[in-house]
Amino acid sequence: MKISGVDIRPGNILEYEKGIWKVAKIQHTQPGKGGAYMQVEMKNLIDGRKTNVRFRSADTVEKVRLDLKDFQYLYADDESLVFMDTDTFEQIQLPADLLGDAAAFLQDGMQVTLEMYDERPISVALPEQVEAEVVEADAVVKGQTASSSYKPAVLDNGVRVMVPPHIESGTRIIVDVYERSYVGKVS
Q: Please, are residues 126 and 99 in contact by the beta-carbon 8 Å criterion?
């Protein structure tokens, strides 16, 4: 499906210069002289390269439609992660760097969605939020107010997040996987 250069949005998957690219950031610019354009930062989903491209409103680019398939995370094996197709029970191995920083939040049996292009997995989407246990939290500094101050804490998966002062070690919390931020306390 062809789209105009000014209709590009973050998260879009585009076919550009014979590669598959995921849009990371966009900035719409309307200079005083000349036409408006969209400054687009993209990451190649095959080899990981990044690029910045200007698209004018007259430019068209091919938006790629990816197939989404549900998988279950099984285990990590050296430099790869093993997933099982929930329909066929077929197992596949993917490089751990395909997930980037989100890989720290993988849990045994977690349901994930693989984005496939020509039957080849190119990205893994984890749930937006996961539960984790705080294993280490700094003490509250006297005089801090609960409304605006946060303190550092370490989760059971080794990830550091900022949490409100009332959260202590041993507390189960909900964390945003992609922002790496505290969402709430598990009730």
A: yes
Give the residue from 11, 46, 63 where a domain finishes: 63
* Distance of alpha carbon 5 from alpha carbon 184, whole angstroms: 38
On the question of pLDDT at 65 being above 90, the answer is no
Given 63, 80, 113, the domain boundary residue is 63
What's the domain count of the chain? Answer: 3
3-state secondary structure of 5: helix
The domain of 14 spans 2-63
Per cent of the chain over pLDDT 70 is 96
Coil, helix or strand at residue 63:
strand
- Which class for 173: exposed (0-12), middle (13-18), buried (19 or more C-beta within 10 A)? buried
pLDDT surpasses 90 at 100: no
pLDDT at site 44: 87
pLDDT band for position 54 (50/70/90)?
A: very high
For residues 120 and 143, state if they share a domain: no
State the pLDDT confidence band at 149, using cuts at 50, 70 and 90. confident
Neighbours of 57 (CB within 10 A): 13
What gap in Å lies between CA 83 and CA 91, rounded to an integer?
6
